[in-house]
Amino acid sequence: MSAAAASDLSTQAQTAGLLAKDKAGTIAGDLRGMMSIEQGPVFLRFLGFTTSLASFGCVIFELINPTNLVHPVMYVLYAYIACFALSTTLFEAKKEWIESVGPLASYQEMLATHCSFISLMGGRGLFYIFQGTLWLTFADSLVEIVQIACAGALVFVGFLHLLAHYGIMPHEVMQRATHHAEMASGKDINGDGQIGAAPVAASSPA
Predict the structure, then answer these.
(1) Could you list the mean pLDDT of each consecutive 10-residue stretch along the chain, which spans 206 residues?
(2) Residue 60 DSSP SS3
(3) Structural domain includes residue 25
(4) 204: in domain
(5) Which domain holds residue 60?
(6) Number of domain units in the chain
(7) What crossing angle do the helices spanning 145-165 and 170-185 adopt, rounded to 10°?
(8) What is the CB-side half-sphere exposure of residue 124 using CA atoms within 13 A?
(9) Which of 14, 57, 125, 147 could connect to 139 by a Cys-Cys bridge, CB 3.0–4.6 Å?
């Protein structure tokens, strides 16, 4: 084989390799674009995002607390909680924010593939409740107010996500609670001029 022919074959092989790499990147990008993440309204996403950040902040508080040095094994549990908290923020943040940071997008895709429950509001709701129960393991008395507050917030957000997964949004929960409270008390609690007005049903999308 002549040197020219060998050079031509080498060039063709390099070109084929580049095309294969580009095609693989395109397929990966298409799969990422097809990845479906169920998200609720902005207010619910904001609650989930901030509650997860608060959980992470509580972990930092516990890590710098010198009294925890006598229980070093608890630091492993703190690491788990921190990882769980940061992971859930990825599914409450705007899709554009995550896609702009390559490593975060890849990590989110990995979670959605291998832990698909977290991409659904119902699954995240149960995950929030699970994180709340982890915080309750630290609350051995009412003095542990930080842990109790964090656990309560996570469980509350978890239940809201479960309701939203089945089409019951937070504002509908408030309407129904107000309706029953007005019926029980006989007072106009929300100031709409009516007592026990029936909740307005959410209109289904066209």
Answers:
(1) 57 57 49 67 92 94 78 85 95 89 91 92 95 87 81 95 83 63 68 65 43
(2) helix
(3) no
(4) no
(5) 36-185
(6) 1
(7) 100
(8) 32
(9) 147
